[in-house]
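Fold these two proteins, one after the other.
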Amino acid sequence: MVRLASLRCARWTVVILLVGSALACTPESVPAAGAQVTDRQGAGVADTGREARVAAQVIDGLFRVGPGEEVVLRGGPRSLPMLEALAVEVLAAGGKAHLLVTTDAERRYRARELALEYLGAPPAHVDSALILGADLEINLPYDSDFRSIWPDLASERFQRHQRSNPILSALNEHSTRRYLYLAMPWQPEVVAAARSQGLDSAAYATLWWAAATADIDSMAVRGVALRRQLAAAKQVRVTTPEGTDFTFTPIGRTARVDLAALSRAAARGESWARRQATFPAGFVTVLPVAGSATGRVRAPANQCDQAVRDEAFELRAGRPERVRAATDEACVQAAVARAGAVGFLAIGLNPAMRPMLGAAGNFLPEQSRGLVTLGLGDNVRFGGTDTAPRWTVPLTRATVRVDGVAVVRDGRLLAAAASER
């Protein structure tokens, strides 16, 4: 999968780019270094094309914004077409859109010249009101090129800039709003991350826009059916032609469809972690009973520091043992050790998503229709309590049986479940 190093809550973490960031504790993302690329530049009125279609997916399909909802939209000059399209969709739904736009010059002044005592000041009453009073916040990139504005993330200036994060984190926990950071394919750091994994940036952008405009309603229908099957299941079995064969007992109440969990009603009472969206969307997740995952895992492709081939390990009482890989083995072993126990299983729903494998790197987005992903470690977003660093294992040709009934066969999501008892 394409990964981006991003500073959140004053610590480094890993963010899945095509999915978007769901770990933000402040309104601002901090991307990794990368080269500038050419795409739609500057301001301009949002057209009725791809931005409008994405806005409809986000506002109507994912968040289901209704009359009277307060929606905060933030971003910089290159984000204006998308911000405008989102604002129009919010208004059309009867909501109230609050646009907050930055400029590169203002951001550059903040980074280079603003007096240190003014950097990272505690939230004002307006900031608190926006967090506590909004029903939804959507952030887009603030800067045309973040690293040209903040070139040194270890500097005293940047540390000062980040010092209000703990207060903002507390406000987020006390809020009821939903949140999305919409990582755009033109972002220099996104392009750099894609290229680092051997992906053509133009091909990646084409894939992103197709996945971002895939029909959410049809995905949701299949996702809800899968959730019901998983919620009632006693056992899930996953096999692949490469030799994967493991089972686990699911915690039924944790089966979750990202496309059906982020309306205001569905998100009410959920923790901050579960009110943060990913986009493009489209996957179902379920958590295993602790220690119930048993068997073997054989993944032909993955991505660590380099492209990974033939990843393999045994599962005993929910934990991986005897971890091996044909390439980048030390990186895989370290990542698996940090992650620890099995945290979740995901099944992709998005028909426009697809894995892209190459010698220089692999892109294996969890939303790819029919792709099964075994997740180790962090499952808080999906209702669990494991906070260890996450490691995911994509199973590209998996068959998944729920109490003997196939829901995925050889990497294809079945339109209707088939009994294979």
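Now the second one:
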Amino acid sequence: MTARGRLAACLAALSLALAGSARAQTSVSIPSADLSRGPGLMLKGFWFEASASAPAPAVVLMHGCGGAYDRRGVLSQRMVDYAALINQAGMHALVVDSLTPRGEKQICTQRSGTRFITQAHRRLDALSALEWLAARSDVDASRLGLMGWSNGGSTVLAATNERHAEAARAAIKPAFAVAFYPGCEAELRRGYETRAHLLMLVGESDDWTPAEPCKRLAAQAAGHPPQIEAYPGAFHGFDSAAPLRVRTDVPNGVHPGKGVTVGGNPAALRLSREALLKFLASESAVHQ
């Protein structure tokens, strides 16, 4: 079987395994603390309720630069699958859309320094989502988490780094966080300090958001030491069914102007799911 065939089979088995645990999604509105465009910005969210009789932990899911939706305009399979995984772990899941409420569908093709929606905006979205969760009676506010991919992974780092004033003074802070292939350069330059338990999952061959700055961030971080898992031969988006391809429309990355490589990796997909589930289980056990 080819690598693509193994990956497709792995994803098919995962989808079947998750089908029974997937919960119905409910559309919700979340007020953002971002006042850069005036008061009253409401983020679109999708709530996946865990099957729990008592207040349960909850996780905010932050999408990447491509947004929360697929080409049909419905919530992406990645978001739905991870929400199901989180529900399976006994936790509520909240997917947050940072782009369409601000009039954007994607920001991948925009140069990092010229983006209309920045990490400063998305950091406030993440912190606002945590406040929204903490106000719910069915959520255990002492066990809140953040999870993000790519640009959303960078948001996770920015929202957990207490060298940002907003993160340091936030009334509601995440107890744990997971960042899939984040861009780590900005927080590495700033200096990273957190009290949250952080898991980073990165690809050794990633030429969009490279692994090396994330390794240095983990090694130099103050506060609670982050955990990092790096997967040999894995590119950006290794946790997907997509075949490897070069995106020439992306101006950012290790080699600006030459595009970036994206696509799934069967081994990294399996290992990252195992690491994620182990991490979520440990976070649940810590507070019991």
